């Protein structure tokens, strides 16, 4: 049995932190996992900037409420879910994701959680499991699934490389250059064609 695992941000929805960087006027928050492979380092950097500017969960959630899925993402997801099981594996947080999941038709999402103080300050975060995307892929495989994965960032490479098929989607030129063996696509139509072919194999 096959299961398709997709990254969320940059693949189905815009990058939350980039949207918030633009909304808040803090360009330093534009850094994402496309730029920084070390997620712990990236999140501590983000939390430090939020604290410096006195910003908390509420302000980020207000920005997220205004974010729409990428054009064509919901139709892509709807069609894919008629063909096979689909799981979204993301390093985002449950406190961020709910409005986006609603707009995508409530697909299954595995992600992480934030630690938030009584005043709304984000004081930390809790990863669901270490190296969560690759660990989840391996668990699915141990449960009898063949995995197909797609993502855009450094933290997606493990799940992309570990399965029966894996694809870069709307990734950076640097990642595509560093991993030329990975098929890279820019449109949902291209990605759907590649996934359908992998499902038939």
What kind of assembly state do the chains in view correspond to? single chain
Indicate the CATH class of the largest domain.
Answer: Alpha Beta
| CATH fold title of the largest domain | Rossmann fold
Instruction: Classify the beta-strand content into a percent band.
Output: 15-25%
Cα-atom Rg, whole angstroms? Answer: 17 Å
Quote the distance from N terminus to C terminus: 11 Å
List keywords for this structure.
single chain, 201 residues, alpha/beta, Rossmann fold, thrh gene product, domain 2, 2 domains, seven-stranded mixed beta sheet, 9 helices
Protein architecture, described:
With 201 residues, this protein is of the alpha/beta class. It folds into 2 domains: 2-13 and 70-112 and 127-200, Rossmann fold (3-Layer(aba) Sandwich); 17-65, Alpha-Beta Complex (thrh gene product, domain 2), CATH 3.90.1470. It has 9 helices and 7 strands, in the order βααααβαββαβαβαβα. Strands 4-3-2-1-5-6-7 form a 7-stranded mixed beta sheet, sandwiched between helices. It is globular. The model has no long low-confidence stretch (mean pLDDT 94).
Secondary-structure blueprint:
Blueprint: E1 2-6, H1 16-24, H2 39-53, H3 57-65, H4 73-83, E2 85-93, H5 94-103, E3 109-116, E4 122-126, H6 132-142, E5 146-151, H7 157-162, E6 165-169, H8 173-178, E7 184-185, H9 188-200
Parallel strand pairs: 1-2, 1-5, 2-3, 5-6, 6-7
Antiparallel strand pairs: 3-4
């Amino acid at each position: 049995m096959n299961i398709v695992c997709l990254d969320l941000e940059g693949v189905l929805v815009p990058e939350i932190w980039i949207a918030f960087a633009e909304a808040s006027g803090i360009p330093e928050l534009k850094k994402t996992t496309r730029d920084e492979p070390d997620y712990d380092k990236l999140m501590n950097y983000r939390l430090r900037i939020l604290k410096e500017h006195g910003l908390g969960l509420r302000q980020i959630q207000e920005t997220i409420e205004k974010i729409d899925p990428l054009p064509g993402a919901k139709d892509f997801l709807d069609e894919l879910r008629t063909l096979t099981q689909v799981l979204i594996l993301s390093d985002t947080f449950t406190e961020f994701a709910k409005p986006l999941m609603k707009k995508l038709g409530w697909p299954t999402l595995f992600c992480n959680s934030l630690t938030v103080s009584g005043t709304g300050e984000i004081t930390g975060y809790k990863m669901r499991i270490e190296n969560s995307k690759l660990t989840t892929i391996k668990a699915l495989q141990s449960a009898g699934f063949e995995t197909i994965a797609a993502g855009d960032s450094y933290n997606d490479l493990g799940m992309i490389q570990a399965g029966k098929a894996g694809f870069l989607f709307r990734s950076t030129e640097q990642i595509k250059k560093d991993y030329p063996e990975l098929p890279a696509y820019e449109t949902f139509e291209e990605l759907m064609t590649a996934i359908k072919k992998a499902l038939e194999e």
